[in-house]
Amino acid sequence: MIFSRRGADDVGGSPVAAGAGDPAEVAAAFTSTPTLFQLLSTVRTRRIGLGYRAETGEEEAFTWSGDRTATQPQGPFAYASPAAPVPLSETEAALLCWAAAGPNGMALADVPVQGALAGMLHRRGRTVPSSSGDLGVDLFVIDDSGVWVYRPEPDPPRPVEIRGPDDYGRILDWYRAGRVQVLDHRPDVAWPGAPEATHNVRPMGAGQYNLNRPGSTWLVPVGDVGLEWFNQLLVSYEWSGFYLQDPDTGDPAGCEEWIRPGFLEVGFPIPAFDELALLLHTGQVGCMVQNIRLACEALGLGAWTTGSYADDFLLGAYPEISPGLGFSFLERDPATNPATTSTCQGLAGVFEPVMVPSPRFPDAASAVRYVRSLREGPGGALDGAPDPWRPEVADEVRAHPRAHLSDWAEEAAIATVEHIVAKHGCCPAYVNPVRAKLSVQVHHVDTGFYRRYFVPDGGADGLTPAIEDHFATWHPGLPDPGAAGDGGQA
User: What domain range includes position 30?
Assistant: First the structure.
């Protein structure tokens, strides 16, 4: 499903063409870049890329964001990049996507049966960990070609996907085959500002002047917090002995009949449980963002880590102002919305979170049973195609009753969700079931900006050898925009 609004040539800039992927370049990333500990010693957020501007005080047309004009007030870092933006090459984009959320083999599932193995959802491993193997975060890629979801799925997974030089090319294959296009243009995320400040465009925050620029690649992890929530509810009821408790009354949230020794025994307030699901989500996203930063540091690219924006706005909660990514939202009754929370129902056919009610999960039973079934479905932790365990161990695990969730835990979870939906209109109720709050915009660094404003001695300017030599190493057919010195108009 692709949503089109304007032609591909109308991206608000004239980026230099990027090169096609080359397996030899992927190999160089594995064999010729600095070590992890060297990267950790220099990693920085570098916000100014080729084609960007900073507090020049000059009006600029944001043709890629709603055809609005913008002015960032003049300041001490006044700079207009003299270079045309250079998009990432296919190799660069493929490496970053793989570092963020790429397949890297089979999860070991080394969870004791008596230690809540039943909580594991998926067998597929990625470059980042996920709570109970839920794979609950997808990577959205925004560049001059539009918006894509990166979702490669080797079938069946191998114990280790990249085992040597012969496998390096698979990173390009996954990038080419594992993406789903959502939009054929950059999303319009420019906030128009207050009527009295029509020239002060704030794309979701004061610091976002260069966000979504032509030539940039904006990598946005989008998380299914609802999946985290429902899976943790099932696992908690099966293993932890606590039940969700209505914070207004202190009473059990619909699960009274299971409150007895050996089943549900201790109350846990719903808002605190919702926050737990959000924390599990943010842990995954944090790992993705750090992997992107380190990969950019290795390749000599700028990585601008940013979260100072309203993610519900980016997703599409306010279409009367900006369509964003086009996600749909549930219209909730303010009287029953306990934290005035925006509630995202996802993007049909692309990203459908586990939340009730939604087109995919109209009621509590459909959502709870879906999450329970993931364990034994294709790619599930108990699917058995293939197993990391020895055959005799795998047989014993699957035959063990504690490797599976109980019917009573499913019934209690359904009753709890029904209680929450009846009171608040949806579940989860206190947190948005879809979040996209932390992201990374990647670009080729405008070295002239850093030479002009930062002390060069001791690396204070942040220009590592990987950045200084980036074009010679990764784009040998293109002139180096930084070779002329500290260009740019103050």
Answer: 23-474
Q: In 10 A of CB 373, how many CB atoms?
A: 11
Number of domains forming the structure of the chain: 1
Q: Judge whether 8 lies within some domain.
A: no
Q: Name the residue with tokens 């009610």.
A: 357
Q: pTM score, two decimals? A: 0.93
Q: Which among 65, 342, 105 has a CA at the least distance from the CA of 214?
A: 65
Residue 1 lies in a domain: no
Binning pLDDT at 50, 70 and 90, where does residue 55 land?
Answer: very high
- Compute and round to an integer the Cα radius of gyration of the chain: 24
Closest alpha carbon to 209 in 306, 323, 317: 306
Peptide bond between residue 112 and the one before it cis (omega within 30 degrees of 0): no
Q: Measured between alpha carbons, how far is 433 from 312 in angstroms, rounded to an integer?
A: 11
Burial class (CB in 10 A: 0-12, 13-18, 19+), 205: middle
For residue 482, being part of any structural domain is answered with: no
Peptide bond into 156 cis (omega under 30): yes
Cβ atoms of 69 and 199 closer than 8 Å:
yes
Position 197, amino acid: A
Q: How far is CA 77 from the centre of its chain?
A: 31
**Least confident range of 201-215, 241-255, 285-299, 426-440:** 201-215
CATH code of the domain covering residue 238: 3.40.109.10
Alpha helix segments (H runs only) across 197-269: 225-235
Separation between Cα atoms, residue 309 and residue 441, nearest integer Å: 13
Please, which residues have CB within 8 angstroms of residue 335's CB and are 6 or more apart in sequence?
none
Q: Is residue 10 part of a domain?
A: no
Say whether the peptide bond before residue 357 is cis (omega within 30 degrees of 0).
yes
